[in-house]
Specification:
It is a single chain. The chain has about 575 residues and is α/β, with parallel strands linked by helices. The chain is about 65% helix and about 10% strand. The chain has two domains: about 220 residues, ABC transporter transmembrane region fold, CATH 1.20.1560.10; about 250 residues, Rossmann fold (3-Layer(aba) Sandwich), CATH 3.40.50.300. The chain is built from 21 helices and ten strands. Strands 6-7-8-3-9-10 form a six-stranded mixed sheet, sandwiched between helices. Strands 2-1-4-5 form a four-stranded antiparallel sheet, covered by helices on one side. Helix 19 links the parallel strand 7 and strand 8. It is elongated. The relative contact order is 0.08. It binds adenosine-5'-triphosphate. Keywords: ATP-binding, Cell membrane, Membrane, Nucleotide-binding, Transmembrane, Transmembrane helix, Transport.
């Protein structure tokens, strides 16, 4: 599992290897002062003479060793951090690439909060693994292993004694792992839920302020935060005792060595000199062992987070190929298409044909499936059954990029990035000149508000485009579409909620976008699409009828019903206006 994370290090793996070597050498040097102490204590115990130059040499060696330890440790950590942060960068970029290829449904299912948590928090915690646990853990464990081999060679009885508490410590650690892993799922789910609820709460702040200050959404928020606290505390409560046991037992390696070792010396089974050596070195390796094991408590969480990341990286992507677009024209065909967002099917066996260069409309009651059909055409989701093709080429047999180049999709809610309006429009065509962007903005009827707002086209759009009104945001999106100049245009209720002045401007902008294109408009206002070449009437996820306005008035009961509602609504507008 760690190997998979390590794969993202790419060329920076060498930094990790270097970090391990530096840290290992550093720890080896950190043992030397204890060896110097042994030399002095042993000489005193053996009544040997200690000359000043000898003492100075020992103290000097100890000091230089400590200095080298510090320098090598810092150098090692420097290398390991370079490796770690580059791996995190690679992971974040790969995750973003993966998200782009996933069906929107998978992303919706995971939730914005969880995805944010994965991108920021979960990946960040891998820093502990890459920058510390791997290099420091390996370094801090390797040196004691070597020292133990030396100790066994010097006096196996004393060496064995100094390891007496290790099995109990390792047992406590194993229990902690088992408990930690068992409850990790609940803990992680609670964290995910809290993240999703926080994002939902912040996104819905406008609604909360107006309607629901103390209501359900706050309760949901508070519950998820409380839940997270409870699960975290419960998890730690279960693990803490075992952490305390192994952290106390493992470093107590001299616990039996001193009394039993002294007995062995007195009985002549070991020498005093060896006992002093074993004691000094066991003190020296207690620190590194404890340091290496300090990472162990974090491992259940790390393993879980890596598994979740792997699940995301391994999620089934949208069906697509590397093929470019080679359709014979811009005919659109839905062939026996069925689709379900989750379990319940919302589109049933729809087949329809759209001729190139024509103006088409999807109409139907709310929830009849108009937007879903548009989203299937732009390949936000894979169809459940059937196929969608352009110019005879199945959209699942071309790359997402190739499909994207053929379609401009202006959806109900347009998202603007918090960068200049100029750059927001330029998203339509990466290499467009400033003059081309300005021309597109002009055609999309943006001049009036661009002249009004401070900074004009260089003004920032604000967080998610909040600086602009809904109508202004839509016109910026249309400017994007004009610039993109794709042969197929899908307009999802672009004028649904507009005041008459804005609608007039939008209609002029739309007329500019749709010139000579294959167009699909998803319209609530039937009056705006009466001239369409073909109108498709949807009812409960099925295609009920299709034809021109006149044909449908003559043949389709559902269309007549919609038309009546549209007329009543238009009359209602007129009479309301008249009374004012
Ligand atoms: N993201 C989603 N997850 C689950 N179900 C969805 C999702 N989006 C839409 N639906 C359901 O799919 C069905 C069709 O919805 P769709 O948005 O396509 O209808 P529509 O005709 O465009 O409606 P409207 O005119 O109100 O926008 C509805 O029953 C809706 O509840």
């Amino acid at each position: 599992m760690f190997k998979k994370v390590f794969e993202y290090a790419g060329e920076y793996k060498a930094y990790t290897y270097r970090a391990i070597v530096y840290i290992l050498l550093g720890i080896a040097f950190s043992i030397i002062p204890y060896f110097c102490v042994y030399k002095i204590v042993n000489a005193l115990l053996q009544n040997q003479e200690i000359t000043m130059p000898y003492l100075t040499a020992l103290i000097g060696t100890a000091l230089i060793s400590l200095l080298l330890y510090a320098v090598l440790n810092v150098k090692g950590l420097q290398q390991s951090h370079i490796a770690a942060y580059n791996t995190l960068k690679n992971l974040r970029i790969s995750l973003q690439g993966k998200l782009e290829k996933l069906p929107l449904g998978t992303i919706e299912e995971v939730g914005t909060g969880s995805i944010k948590k994965m991108f920021i928090d979960d990946i960040e915690t891998l820093e502990l693994l890459l920058a510390h646990a791997i290099p420091e853990g390996i370094g801090n464990l390797c040196v004691p292993v070597v020292i133990y081999i030396v100790l066994f060679a010097v006096d196996w009885k004393l060496a064995l004694l100094s390891m007496a508490t290790l099995p109990l410590g390792i047992l406590a650690m194993a229990i902690m792992f088992a408990i930690g892993n068992k409850d990790m799922n609940h803990y992680y789910m609670a964290a995910q839920k809290m993240n999703n609820t926080i994002i939902e709460y912040v996104n819905g702040m406008e609604v909360v302020k107006v309607f629901n200050r103390d209501g359900e959404s706050y309760e949901k928020y508070e519950n998820s935060v409380t839940n997270y606290r409870d699960f975290t505390l419960a998890w730690f409560k279960a693990c803490w005792p075992w952490m305390a046991i192994y952290s106390s037992l493992i470093p107590c390696i001299a616990f039996l060595t001193l009394p039993v070792g002294a007995y062995l010396v007195l009985q002549g089974y070991s020498t005093l000199s060896n006992l002093v050596l074993v004691l000094c070195l066991t003190f020296a390796i207690g620190g590194p062992i404890l340091h290496a094991l300090s990472f162990a408590g974090k491992f259940p969480q790390l393993i879980y987070k890596i598994e979740e990341l792997e699940k995301m990286m391994g999620a089934a992507p949208l069906k697509q190929s590397e093929e470019g677009f080679h359709g014979k024209d811009y005919t659109i065909d839905f062939h026996q298409v069925s689709f379900a967002y989750k379990e319940e099917e919302v589109i049933h066996q729809i087949s329809l044909h759209i001729n190139p260069g024509t103006m088409n409309a999807f109409v139907g009651e709310s929830g009849s499936g108009k937007s879903t059909l548009a989203k299937l055409l732009v390949h936000f989701y894979d169809v459940g059954q059937g196929s969608v093709s352009i110019g005879g080429q199945n959209i699942a047999e071309m790359s997402i990029e190739a499909l994207g180049d053929q379609i401009s999709y202006v959806s109900q809610e347009q998202f603007l990035f918090n960068m200049s309006l100029l750059e927001n429009i330029r998203l339509g065509k990466k290499n467009a000149t400033d003059a081309e962007v300005l021309e597109a903005a002009h055609k999309a009827q943006c001049d009036e508000f661009l002249n009004r707002i401070e900074g004009g086209i260089m003004a920032m759009a604000g967080d998610s485009g909040k600086q602009l009104s809904g109508g202004e945001r839509q016109r910026i999106s249309l400017a994007r579409a004009i610039l993109k100049d794709a042969p197929i245009i899908v307009l999802d209720e672009a004028t649904a909620f507009m005041d008459p002045e804005n609608e007039e401007k939008m209609n002029q902008a739309i007329a500019e976008v749709i010139k000579d294109k294959t167009v699909i408009v998803i319209a609530h206002r039937l009056h705006s699409i009466v001239n369409a070449d073909c109108i498709f009437v949807l009812k409960n996820g099925r295609l009920d009828a299709s034809g021109t306005h006149q044909e449908l008035l003559e043949e389709s009961g559902e269309y007549n019903k919609l038309w009546k509602i549209a007329e009543t609504s238009a009359n209602w507008h007129v009479s309301t206006g008249g009374e004012q």
